[in-house]
Amino acid sequence: MRRRSGAILRSAWFRRGSPGEARLQAQRTGRKRRSLFNQRAGPPFTKTFGDTKASTLAPMLKFKYTKVAGKRTLRLTPGRVPGMLRAMQNRSTWEGLIISPDAKPGPDGEGQYPVLSLGWYPDFGYEAYCMERSPKSHFVATGTKLSKPAVYVELGGRGQELWPRELFVPFATAEQAVLHLLRTGKRDPSLSWVAIDAFPRKNVRTRKRTAPR
Fold first, then answer.
1. Number of Cβ within a 10 Å radius of residue 135
2. How far apart are CA 49 and CA 179, in angstroms?
3. By C-alpha distance, which of 155, 180, 84 is closest to 126?
4. Contact (Cβ atoms closer than 8 angstroms) between residue 128 and residue 174
5. Which residues does residue 109 pair with via DSSP β-bridges, in sequence order?
6. Which structural domain range is residue 17 located in?
7. Which residues of the chain have a pLDDT value below 50?
8. Do 69 and 13 sit in the same domain of this protein?
9. Distance between CA atoms of residues 168 and 164, nearest Å
10. I need a labelling partner for 192 at 20 to 30 A (CA). Which of 38, 79, 118, 126 fits?
11. For residue 141, which of 181, 96, 188 has the smallest C-alpha distance?
């Protein structure tokens, strides 16, 4: 028995007036409608993050965090940031956090920076100190206009100083700084940052009680 070729079978199926011919016309009509819709709708939808456009979400950078003088290191994701910041309010001021890249260190500090140091000061807010590969490190602040030094700070056993109140920010500002760092590996340019050598400070010998805001 001779087998009909595929071309012959397709020809019989798509003869004028046949079911196959009607289905082909419907498919062509559907393609034309979709084409017209795409022309009116414009280019495919893309998500915009800052200055970068991507059809999908950019891969998240890997960061970790640990308590000061602690041994346990945890992976830090955006979903963990609010809980991490709230938990700091239940610990002593000196028991801050260090956020750093979860990557193998490379030459010239590559993969080691940026590092964000966080501290909690009751009645004043969060201290967020960002260390980068650049010569100067910066503190996030509530504004660039700084008041006289008023908040008592212990420098890890190396001394005591008074710092301006603006260097201690609310929860929302600290959260924004951390989330931007996780997504870009950089400081958030929309926030106010003060260089470590650009704010007034006062050395103190004994602890001075600072009145809350």
1. 7
2. 13
3. 84
4. yes
5. none
6. 6-41
7. 1-16, 18-20, 23-24, 27, 30-59
8. no
9. 8
10. 79
11. 188
